[in-house]
Specification:
alpha+beta, two-stranded antiparallel sheet, about 10% strand, Phage_TAC_19, about 100 residues, 4 helices
Length: about 100
């Protein structure tokens, strides 16, 4: 899995060889937490969600602040979806071409 962040005005690409199963497990914890509304999290809960990408998937190759400042929200949602569900969303963007969607599996 790769993620591209804008850091200090420069595009930087970070790579994770695979997405650990811990990312999915953490997501299942979020879904089971009745105090957490995934569609409308508190700022603290949003930080916890973002750490799935920052700490678990990319193993702290960048800071949470660099993640927040370096990627558009929509792209962050797509990367979280990719990490948790194991495939890219089918919403058409150039970087999604050639990937198998859930419906195609």
């Amino acid at each position: 899995m790769q993620i591209e962040l804008l850091i200090d005005g420069k595009k930087k690409i970070f790579t994770a060889p695979f997405v650990p199963m811990l990312a999915k497990r953490k997501w299942l914890e979020f879904e089971a937490d009745e105090s957490l509304d995934l569609d409308n999290p508190t700022p603290e809960q949003f930080d916890e969600i973002a750490t799935v990408i920052q700490k678990i998937v990319f193993r702290e190759q960048f800071t949470l602040e660099e993640l927040y400042w370096g990627i558009p929200y929509e792209q962050m949602v797509k990367k979280t979806f990719e990490a948790v569900y194991g495939f890219k969303s089918s919403e058409g963007t150039d970087d999604d071409q050639g990937n198998v969607t859930r419906e195609e599996r």
